[in-house]
């Protein structure tokens, strides 16, 4: 029998968000036939390739794994990973065209797929409510490259997030201003994507822009603390990556983040004052940082991309 196929469109993108990380890691670990579009077709121009060309390329495969939310609606052998339902739950966070496209295509993909995989119990509940599908939950992983290292000479707090409304970066501005008075910088690694509504008023943050993948482990490990202020996450991979790097984590108590952090992070309301208070307290409390560091290392050890790949493969093979 032929091996399953995998849609590598997201894996080929130079940007690195959660769906791109999933696609790259699964392409690297699953013994599937990889279908990758030309570089010019990895973004919006690639929708036609995904909808028209990919079904032909993968027609004889027993299953086609699509790991990044989208899939060809004409294919009948699809197993799709839908990471969350944010465009349906909060369409105002996105451009009008993107929200309309997602509103049309996600129900079609979910209804026609042989199986739907999602990344958390929270997202499973979202997909059940908004799309009427029952999804298999498979958690994401952490690469061994993310490991403790030397802290930076100049102290900083790190956030890894794109500049989008759901990431709630503006809520970090009061914390950044207060930390700066103590000689601590608040750095944000991540870029802006045109389909998402961007936040403004982030001047108090040190915006690093997109950071190369090979530089991320040292950036996490060098931080005094990590913060993810999101108001909506399907999983929140940066939380686990920071934990694996031995960096104490502050994140919010909403959506999937309590599930992902598993009691090993400081959870707060996603509002500016709560985040400011938590970060100032953590930066000034070495004992608490050590406690969260040890708990985070233990939590991160429960996740690996090998385990993720096995879980996804089991679902894929159950469909044929």
Automatic annotation (TrEMBL):
One of its GO terms (biological process) is lipopolysaccharide biosynthetic process. It comes from the Bacteria. The keyword Transferase applies. Keywords: Glycosyltransferase, Transferase. Residues 70-145 form the Glycosyltransferase subfamily 4-like N-terminal domain. InterPro entries: Glyco_trans_4-like_N. CDD domains: GT4_MtfB-like (cd03809). SUPFAM superfamilies: UDP-Glycosyltransferase/glycogen phosphorylase. One of its GO terms (molecular function) is glycosyltransferase activity. This is Glycosyltransferase family 4 protein. It comes from Solirubrobacter phytolaccae.
């Amino acid at each position: 029998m032929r091996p399953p196929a995998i849609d590598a469109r997201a894996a080929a993108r130079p940007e690195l968000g959660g769906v791109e990380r999933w696609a790259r890691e699964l392409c690297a670990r699953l013994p599937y036939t990889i279908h990758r579009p030309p570089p010019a077709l990895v973004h919006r121009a690639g929708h036609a390739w995904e909808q028209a060309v990919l079904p032909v390329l993968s027609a004889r495969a027993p299953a086609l794994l699509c790991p990044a939310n989208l899939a060809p609606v004409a294919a009948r052998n699809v197993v799709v990973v839908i990471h969350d339902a944010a465009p349906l739950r909060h369409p105002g966070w996105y451009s009008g065209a993107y929200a309309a496209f997602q509103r049309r295509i996600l129900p079609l993909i979910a209804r026609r797929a042989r199986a739907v995989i999602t990344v958390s119990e929270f997202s499973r509940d979202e997909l059940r409510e908004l799309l009427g599908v029952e999804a298999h939950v498979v958690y994401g992983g952490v690469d061994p490259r993310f490991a403790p290292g030397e802290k930076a000479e100049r102290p900083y707090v790190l956030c890894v997030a794109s500049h989008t409304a759901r990431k709630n970066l503006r809520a970090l501005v009061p914390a950044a201003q207060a930390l700066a008075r103590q000689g601590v910088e608040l750095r944000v690694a991540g870029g802006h994507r045109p389909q998402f509504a961007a936040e403004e008023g982030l001047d108090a943050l040190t915006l690093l822009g997109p950071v190369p993948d090979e530089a991320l482990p040292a950036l996490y490990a060098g931080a005094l603390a990590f913060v993810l202020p999101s108001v909506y996450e399907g999983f929140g991979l940066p939380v686990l990556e920071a934990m694996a790097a031995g960096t104490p984590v502050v994140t919010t108590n909403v959506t999937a983040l309590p599930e992902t952090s598993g009691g090993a992070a400081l959870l707060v309301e996603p509002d500016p004052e709560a985040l400011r208070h938590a970060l100032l307290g953590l930066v000034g409390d070495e004992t608490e940082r050590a406690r969260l560091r040890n708990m985070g290392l233990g939590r991160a050890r429960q996740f690996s991309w090998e385990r993720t790949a096995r879980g996804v493969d089991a679902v894929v093979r159950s469909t044929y």
